[in-house]
Specification:
The complex is a heterodimer. By secondary structure, chain A is an all-alpha fold. Chain A is built from 26 helices and four strands. The longest helix of chain A has 47 residues. In chain B, strands 1-2 form a two-stranded antiparallel sheet. The chains are: A mainly alpha, B mainly alpha. At the A-B interface, strand 3, helix 5, helix 6 and helix 25 of A face helix 7, helix 10, helix 12, helix 14 and helix 17 of B.
């Protein structure tokens, strides 16, 4: 299994999607095991690709030969007569971040699928659910192996479709249907930018091939303003998919989907596609520094915004969703200072601990059928395994040494300090502390204290092994995934000079991780302080939590109303967009149709009605008209002579 | 494709004509016999259309399957080859023939449940199809226009007799506007005939003739407005929403699916191929009308609450893309325009098929009256979603291939227009997804508990159309090869 066969990875689940989507009724268990086996094969293959990738290093340099490892032309307009060339290829490309993404996507997808066997048992459309999961896996894998921007766009839309279908999985519920619509339209608006950006890149380089575009940009082929606009457009697509401000509104609503879907699509894989895209195009962003700065500040805004909203949200899944929004902001901050390594490393660790947290919340919801944290509590007694695993995930998210989140968050703070100075650094460090606070709140309200809703508590039970085991494996990864940053670990895995040098970077050159004692200690202390603060407010009685709210009612209101951003959008759609549509509809009806078309018809009809009176049929009238005509003609004749 | 295969091209208009004549002798009550005759004829047309499309050699001659029989020559103002019955297809007509085959096949199936004067309905429908096929395969300007009118005129009766809602109004408006537009085409045709001074209506000969640039600049707008009216060009589109709303299912399918393409086809044939310099002069105006129509149709559709009116506005929007693509004057954009003609044809036929299937059961087309339809009609909803996804250009479906060519072409010509065009696709997504969320999903409304799944004929038709949508979306090469070749050979002067 060499890198040139990497197209097999998306092909296997794609075929399974088509087969199981149509024929899941014909196989036992509606084909869930077939889909899971297919994904297990993909996991194995992705490790074979990793091995091949590792083997193609010569003297610390990546030397796989041809950059487009596999390709065939899909659309080709070039017959030589006219100087017009359009070539769209299906081509794959493998480098460090591809290998990384393959591992993340395939492992998390497999774990979520296994978990779903327990979680979705007895649900409607069980077979269709697994088929779409498989389809999603195919699209996501294709997205990360594509070496061509249009193929990437194709997969990008395909994961969006899978997300739409899965958010709206319980479509009988109007809220689910609305959430699916909101997610699709919001990301679609970002995708307008993405497609414009891709075409603008093509317009300069004359190719959709990513490596050729990078080459062209590095050679200064694009004008500065042109490239800035282009990369901002591209970033709009990335921000839409990755739920960055101002597109972040769809992600919390997307929690209407089944919880395993949230773990897979809305935590670990699809929402990081934007991060992946910017990382993939980083050499071009390096030429357009203004656009890169925008990435930084959008990321910073989103990180803070998501973390503050996580503080007051009461739905357990929505807290995690805002947390995801915030953590994606962290990754964009790293990209904004040009560090692909830090961003991809955080993407890697975040995928494991956040999907773990989502699966944990799914376990709670499965057991209690309740997802508002204020009604939960005390679940640790009934669900010890879930509690333990959830706490591990939370500690990783909060960035407690030596769990995965610690290493990657540290790396981001470090590159930020080097790259953007003190201000952004302070904001992000404070956000990291906020992360610890809201995580603590979530854990305390859900699993500790006294049960607030006795019925839900009585209903609770530990989840079956088929759900706990995937969580345990993700928890293991959430513990150890950060260690790859350590040089000895990388060497032990067979990468000379540390795994970080090759796997977490874009292109062919390595980039080493750094560790800074001051930042590491500072971050740990602030995370611990956050946890302590969380304990002070939310452990014990509900009154204390209320008092916390009263600390600043105005700010609390602002947060509960999500900074009024959703309201603003709703207002814009209702009043501005639909208002304009009403104007156009009325214009079409009354001006174009009634006045223009019917009006001219009525005009002619009216003219005919009037003119018919000239035809009276009475001789004297005609005689009079003739007489007048003769006189007029005579006068004209006289006048001319 | 050899010239002898021109007999197949000739059979395309003759089969529906023959079937129509045959139907005249079938007693009205014999519904089985009517179904057999129409079924056999539609399958034959479909099979020949598919064959013609694939047999067309995109490395060969510009016109293939060329056969000619002289009709009038050397009389009066006619010289050699004055008027001939001449058939042949090029790379632009071949996909249109395929489109017609697909739409008439599925349109016939869904019309079988037509109870009211079923025989007369099919006679008129087949005369219309004969006209459509004839226009695509005719290589003589006289017959071209004759058949063009043959395709348009039965529409009046089909809507007026078998339509619904404001059918007299819709039929009358459609007819008045299209006939008025035909006067412009008629004028241009005689202008071209006189200016060429060859005494022949032979199309290839007229393409090769040279026309005075001033003459071209005067005549080109007549073609654009004349044919554009049938194509639904803004602001001559008002017949489209009302006409579609009033027409019976199969007529809507054929009309939006194929007849509107006839308008765009006329602009290419009589406009760009005949008068390239006029085309170059007026292209910016065509492009402007295209993008305005695309945006206008999409924004207007946001507010429509009638399924068919919404699809009618959507058609105006999508045909706007076609004119936009033609106005880019480069091979990529113009190929996109022809691709869009095909893509919009199958997609909109599917839309109208499904809307008709619902309306036949519920007799209500008001979108806001429905909720949770996917519960009662899951298969129907799946097909509708496929058509919708194709409509807003989801990659892997037909709409994307066409739109991406148009976008790229537009960006080559005028980046701002390209940006607006991409934005329009987002509006399209908005109105369709809003409708899905409100109408298909959510709780099932007990009012419609009597509404059941669509019939087998409708499922079969929807399947054929969906396969076409996927085929073009996933493997567009056969279309692109033919279209690019047709444009390169047809309008080399225009392409920059």
């Amino acid at each position: 299994m060499g890198m040139e066969h990497v197209w097999l990875l998306p092909a296997i689940p794609a075929v399974l999607f088509a087969l199981m989507g149509l024929f899941n009724g014909l196989v036992p268990r509606r084909g869930d095991f077939i889909v899971i086996l297919g994904m297990a094969v993909v996991v194995v293959l992705s490790f074979l690709v990793l091995l091949d990738f590792q083997g193609s290093f010569r003297d610390g340099h990546f030397a796989p030969g041809d950059s487009n490892l596999y390709s065939f032309s899909w659309v080709e307009i070039d017959t030589g007569v006219v100087d017009d060339l359009l070539l769209i290829e299906f081509s794959t490309f493998v480098d460090g971040i591809t290998v990384l993404m393959l591992a993340v996507v395939s492992i998390v997808t497999l774990m979520v699928m296994i978990y779903s066997v327990g979680y979705m048992r007895g649900e409607v459309r069980y077979g269709w659910y697994f088929a779409v999961l498989s389809g999603f896996g195919a699209a996501m894998l294709m997205l990360v192996v594509s070496g061509n921007l249009l193929l990437l766009y194709l997969s990008w839309e395909a994961v969006g479709l899978a997300s739409y279908l899965l958010i709206g999985f319980y479509w009988e519920r109007q809220t689910a249907a609305e959430a699916a619509k909101k997610a699709f339209i919001t990301t679609r608006i970002g995708d307008v930018g993405l497609l414009i950006g891709i075409i603008l890149l093509w317009r300069g380089a004359g190719s959709f091939d990513i490596q050729e575009i990078i080459h062209f940009a590095e050679g200064g082929g694009y004008g500065e303003t042109y490239l800035t606009v282009t990369m901002l457009m591209l970033f709009a697509g990335a921000a839409g998919k990755s739920a960055q401000f101002p597109f972040h509104v769809w992600l919390p609503d997307a929690m209407e989907g089944p919880t395993p879907v949230s773990a897979l699509i809305h935590a670990a894989t699809m929402v990081v596609a934007g991060v992946y895209l910017v990382a993939r195009m980083m050499p071009v962003f390096d030429v357009a520094l203004v656009a890169r700065d925008v990435v930084l500040y959008i990321g910073l805004t989103t990180a803070a915004l998501g973390a503050t909203l996580g503080l007051v949200t009461s739905d357990i899944k929505r807290v995690l969703a805002y947390s995801t929004v915030s953590q994606l902001g962290f990754m964009f901050v790293a990209l904004g200072v040009g560090s692909v390594t830090a961003a991809m490393f955080h993407l890697f660790t975040h995928a494991f601990f956040k999907s773990l947290l989502f699966l944990g919340s799914g376990s709670v919801i499965h057991a209690t059928e309740e997802q508002v944290v204020e009604t939960l509590g005390g679940l640790r007694r009934k669900m010890p395994a879930t509690t333990t695993l959830f706490v591990i995930g939370s500690l990783a998210l909060a960035g407690i040494v030596p769990l995965a989140g610690f290493w990657s968050k540290d790396e981001i703070l470090l590159v930020l300090q080097d790259g953007a100075g003190f201000g952004p650094f302070v904001i992000l460090a404070a956000t990291a502390a906020l992360t610890a606070i809201y995580t603590t709140r979530l854990v305390l309200l859900t699993f500790f204290g006294e049960p607030k809703d006795q019925a839900a508590y009585d209903h609770a039970h530990e989840s079956p092994a088929v759900m706990i085991l995937p969580m345990a494996l993700l928890a293991l990864l959430a513990v150890i995934a950060g260690f790859v940053a350590l040089d000895p670990v990388g060497r032990a895995l067979g990468f000379t000079g540390g795994i970080g040098e090759v796997v977490f970077t874009q292109g062919h050159e390595g980039h080493a991780f750094k560790l800074d004692a001051t930042i590491a200690i500072g971050a740990t202390v602030s995370a611990l302080a956050g946890i302590v603060l969380g304990f002070i407010y939310w452990s014990g009685t509900a009154e204390r939590a209320v008092r916390a709210r009263q600390w600043s009612p105005e700010f609390h209101d602002l947060l509960v109303n999500r900074y009024y951003i959703d309201h603003l959008y709703q207002f814009t759609i209702d009043r501005v967009v639909l208002g304009l549509a009403t104007v156009v509809a009325y214009f079409d009806r009354w001006v174009v149709n009634e006045t223009g078309v019917d009006g001219s018809a009525q005009g002619i009809s009216f003219a005919g009605y009037r003119l018919k009176f000239f035809q009276t049929g009475r001789i004297p009238n005609y005689a009079l008209a003739m007489a007048i005509g003769v006189i007029v003609l005579a006068l004209v004749a006289v006048g001319r002579t | 494709m050899t010239d002898n295969e021109g007999y197949l091209l000739l059979s395309l208009p003759l089969i529906p004509l023959g079937a129509a004549v045959l139907l005249m002798f079938v007693p009205s009550g014999e519904r089985t016999l009517i179904r057999i005759v129409t079924g056999v004829a539609s399958v034959a047309m479909f099979a020949i259309s598919v064959y013609v499309f694939f047999a067309f050699d995109y490395r060969g001659e510009q016109f293939q399957g060329v056969l000619a029989w002289p009709w009038f020559e050397n009389v009066g103002f006619l010289g050699d080859n004055g008027v001939q019955l001449k058939v042949g297809v090029d790379g632009i007509a071949a996909p249109m023939v395929l489109l017609t085959g697909i739409v008439i096949l599925t349109g016939t199936w869904v019309s079988w449940k037509q109870e009211h004067r079923s025989k007369d309905f099919f006679i008129l429908l087949f005369v219309l199809v004969a006209g459509v096929y004839g226009t695509f395969v005719a290589l003589d300007l006289f017959f071209w226009f004759l058949l063009y009118e043959t395709a348009v005129l039965p529409m009046y009766l089909l809507i007026g007799v078998w339509g619904s809602g404001r059918r007299e109004y819709g039929a009358m408006k459609l007819m008045m506007m299209l006939v008025a537009a035909s006067i412009l085409i008629f004028t241009a045709i005689f202008g071209i005939f006189t200016e060429a001074g060859l005494g022949t209506f032979d199309l290839p000969a007229l393409f090769d003739a040279t026309y005075d640039p001033t003459f071209q600049k005067i005549m080109f707008p007549l073609i654009v407005l004349g044919c554009g009216t049938l194509g639904g060009i803004f602001p001559l589109h008002p017949w489209s929403p009302d006409g579609h709303a009033a027409a019976p299912t199969a007529v809507s399918m054929l009309h939006a699916g194929v007849l509107m393409k006839l308008g765009a086809f006329g602009i290419i044939r009589l406009g760009f191929q005949m008068m390239p310099e006029g085309g170059e002069f007026w292209a910016p105006a065509l492009l402007t009308l295209g993008i305005v129509g695309a945006l206008y149709g999409a924004i207007g559709a946001l507010r429509q609450t009638d399924f068919k009116l919404m699809t009618g506005f959507s058609s105006v929007s999508h045909m706007g893309y076609v004119f936009l693509g033609l106005g880019t004057l480069n091979l990529i954009g113009m190929s996109g325009a022809v691709l869009q003609m095909f893509a919009h044809g199958v997609m909109t036929a599917l839309f109208f098929l499904l809307i008709g299937a619902l309306y036949d059961q519920s007799h209500d087309r008001e979108i806001t009256h429905y909720s949770g339809l996917a519960k009662q009609m899951p298969v129907w909803a799946v097909f509708f979603v496929i058509a919708g996804l194709a409509s807003f250009g989801l990659p892997g479906l037909s709409g994307f291939i066409a739109e991406v060519h148009i976008f790229i072409g537009a960006f080559r010509a005028y980046p701002i227009v390209g940006g607006l065009a991409v934005f329009t696709a987002a509006i399209t997504a908005t109105y369709l997804l809003r409708m899905f969320a409100r109408t298909f999903f959510g709780e099932a409304d007990p009012r419609w508990s009597g509404v059941g799944e669509i019939t087998w004929a409708e499922k079969a038709g929807a399947t054929v159309l969906s396969i076409s949508i996927f085929a073009l979306g996933l493997w567009p090469a056969p279309w692109i090869d033919r279209i690019a070749m047709g444009l390169e050979m047809g309008i080399p002067e225009v392409l920059s």
